Each structure stands twice: as C-alpha cells, then as structure tokens.
Amino acid sequence: MPRYLSLANQTAASPELASAVREIVAKDIDTEFVLLVPATPMEDLLDWQDGDSETIAKRTAQAAKDHLAGVGAKVARTEVGDASPVKAIENELEQHQEKYDGIIISTLPLQRSRWVALDQPRRIERRFKVPVRHVVGHSVTMTREDLINGLNEDLNLELEAILRSVYHAAAGRGMLGHELRELLKKELPSELDHATFLADKIVALGGEVRIRPAMPAEFGAARELLQQNIAAERKVIGNYAKRIDQAAEFGDKGLAIRLENMLASETDHLEQLERLGR
Ligand SMILES: [Fe+2]
Ligand SMILES: [Fe+2]
User: pTM of the full predicted structure?
Assistant: First the structure.
C-alpha cells in the first residue's frame, strides 16, 4: 500500500494540508500516512502557545492525527522530530528505513519563501529519491483576537517609550544625559506615530484599545537610563518581528508591511542608542 510522510507544524490542521491528503487518499483509499512534527524551538513559537516545545509538538501531532483521520486518511503513526525540518526528515528516513512514496511538507506562507530560497524540497528529493510536495497552509491557531492582543501589547510598549522618553529626556544629567535627551526628543514623534497607527489598526480590526502602559523606572545615572532604553528597543524589535509573522499568517499583508517599516525605524533607534553607549 502507498505510504506518505507528512511534515507539518503550525499548519498541521490546515485545510490546505487536508485537501492535499484527500487528493492522495482519493487515488488509493489504503494509503498510509506518517505524521512528523518538528519540535519547534521556543524562540520561534508564537506567544499564545503554552508549554515547552516538546509538549506543544506532541499536542500538535495529536491534533493533526485527529484532523487527518477526519478527512479519511489512515495515520500509521505520529512522530515529534528535530526542530529543523530537514533534519527531522533525514532522521525519520534513516531510522525507520521505510519506503515512502512521497513526502508532503506543509509550511506557512512566510516559511515557504525560506524553504524555496534554500531549495530544501529539491535537496530532500535528490538525497532520498522520494518525490516532495510542498503545501502552503495557513495556521488555524492564528485568530483575529490573537492579533489584536498582540497589537495592544505593541501599543502599550510604544506608549511606554513615549513616557520613558519624556521622563529620561528631563532627567538625564551630564554629557551623556544631554546627548540622550537630544536623541530621545528627536525620536518622540516617530514613537507617537507608531502608537497612533497601532490604536487605529486595533479599532479597524474590530478590537478594543486597551491602554495599560507600565510607568518608567525611577531614574538613575545617565548610563543606566541609556541601558533601559536599549533594552526596551530590543524588546520592541523582537515583538515586531513576531507580529509581522502573525500579520502575514492572518493574511493582512498591508499590516505586515507597516510593521516592517516600524521594525526598521526601531532598529535605527537601537543603533543610535548603542552608538551613544560606546
Ligand atoms: Fe516605536
Ligand atoms: Fe523606538
């Protein structure tokens, strides 16, 4: 009977993967599938998922199994593999020595471009002499509510940047304090732009604007203030990187582009702050 290896993580329960599987089953009802879920590294996991990477992968594998059984596929077994998809496939093929008639690799749209750029599907085909089919799926865990929650978090970080800048610009002493003051004042309009954009976007998505910024820490020496600002910019950059993926996954390309511009502006802020510290 035909046997397929199906590799998926966030897209494991996507309609796109289900329809690819359904097509294969339609040709031979006895086709068996082995589901392979890479253990995603923690830093790549989106922040609404709870638990460690192994637990999440196991949960994903179980959900994927139920999902594919629901479309009439026979699932022989599920495996949690290496965090790297290529390594996961390699290990599976080497350890089990099973003959596969094909490999289905299902990724998110953004991962697709990474895969294609690296030519991974062809590499696997050549190495294991098994046809590889690449399916681009959408995450079923990404909802409008998650995106709105994330944007509210970003909005509050921008508001914190504004409060911190006003406070630190006034509080900085000495030469470094003076330079920091000039820099923070110069960047204030862009932080305000970011905050305004995010609040408007939350409303446009049908969400509720939740303003709850943390207050800036009591001020210390200028060097300490500088370090606080550097740490805050790093956090904002990390959040935007994550949000860009979420926006793309949600299918809002315009938002992803706006967030990319904001990430670029925060990267400028960070670099200028770091230069001050040298
Ligand atoms: Fe900002
Ligand atoms: Fe900034």
Answer: 0.61
